[in-house]
């Protein structure tokens, strides 16, 4: 049902007058339409397509262009992006910096992606780092952290955190944190918990020390998600179940407390889901098959009631109810 139909129905029921309906219709017709998120999406896609197209051109014409020319071109593009970002940026501040030029954010992102392409090309063609792959990952990670804080860019910060995780042999992307990591390996599992905890603490300290406190959301989301999933994996796959259960509940509580502090529905949902999975596993992992199905029926009933209560009262839990 469109706006005009709704207005006609309201007028026919004498809820509003013809004059009020005319004013509402005029306002709806004349108000500006925001295309902010559409433009942001198009710019991000444009950067990805540009780099993809550049890679295809290089691949198809490598014999005629030459390696040195390709390297020089990518290096010039990278340097130009960083130079433009620096010229258009505001001075560093520990507080959030709102850049007047939105193009500067995307040019910086293009520069970071181009730097990765340049480094990867040098390593592939000339073995610049030899077998020291950790150094090849560490250099862009340090650069991206510096750029994220200097230019106040949360997208570059996410790239830096991902690079730090890769340096430790981990995948931290939310959609691949399970499939991309061998969390049955005790060494990788504990590394994931330690890194996730450090990132979460860094996010908490960012707010307490007021140093780019708006970065805390990125740190807590990526770090807390990694640590909580690693603790769950340890609970399921490792023998020290009490330790990993305590860690899992600790991360759940951390998510809930930060959800209340930041008024974040996502953090509250993550805390509740991780807690639910932990409790479910602890209840069922040792029971016999004789009582499994009867207990499951009761548990599902109680869980359903709990879900309904959560949906009805999540605003109270967050402290946003009025």
UniProtKB/TrEMBL annotation:
TM region positions: 41-59, 65-86, 106-124, 130-149, 156-176, 188-205, 217-236, 242-259, 266-285, 291-312
Keyword set includes Cell inner membrane: no
Keyword RNA-binding attached: no
Domain DUF2157: residue ranges: 9-155
Organism superkingdom: Bacteria
Annotated keywords: Membrane, Transmembrane, Transmembrane helix
Record's protein name: DUF2157 domain-containing protein
């Amino acid at each position: 049902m469109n706006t005009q139909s709704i207005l006609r129905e309201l007028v026919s029921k004498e809820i509003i007058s013809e004059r009020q309906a005319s004013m509402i219709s005029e306002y709806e017709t004349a108000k500006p339409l925001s295309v902010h998120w559409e433009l942001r999406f198009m710019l991000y896609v444009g950067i990805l397509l540009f780099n993809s197209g550049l890679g295809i051109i290089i691949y198809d014409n490598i014999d005629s262009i030459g390696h040195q020319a390709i390297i020089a071109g990518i290096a010039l593009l990278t340097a130009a992006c960083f130079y433009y970002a620096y010229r258009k940026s505001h001075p560093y501040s520990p507080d959030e910096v709102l850049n007047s030029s939105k193009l500067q954010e995307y040019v910086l992102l293009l520069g970071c992606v181009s730097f990765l392409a340049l480094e990867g090309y040098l390593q592939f063609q000339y073995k610049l780092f030899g077998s020291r792959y950790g150094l090849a990952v560490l250099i862009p990670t340090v650069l991206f952290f510096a750029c994220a804080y200097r230019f106040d860019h949360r997208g570059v910060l996410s790239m830096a955190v991902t690079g730090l995780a890769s340096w430790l042999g981990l995948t931290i992307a939310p959609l691949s944190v399970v499939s991309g990591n061998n969390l049955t390996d005790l060494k990788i599992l504990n590394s994931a918990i330690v890194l996730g905890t450090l990132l979460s603490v860094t996010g908490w300290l960012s707010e307490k020390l007021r140093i780019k406190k708006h970065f805390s959301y990125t740190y807590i989301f990526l770090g807390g998600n990694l640590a909580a999933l690693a603790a769950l994996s340890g609970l399921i796959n490792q023998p020290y179940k009490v330790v990993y259960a305590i860690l899992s509940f600790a991360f759940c509580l951390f998510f809930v407390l930060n959800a209340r502090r930041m008024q974040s529905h996502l953090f509250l949902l993550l805390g509740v889901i991780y807690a639910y999975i932990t409790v479910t596993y602890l209840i069922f992992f040792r029971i016999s098959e004789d009582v499994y199905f009867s207990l499951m029926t009761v548990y599902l009933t109680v869980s359903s009631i709990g879900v309904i209560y959560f949906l009805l009262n999540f605003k109270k839990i967050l402290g946003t109810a009025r």
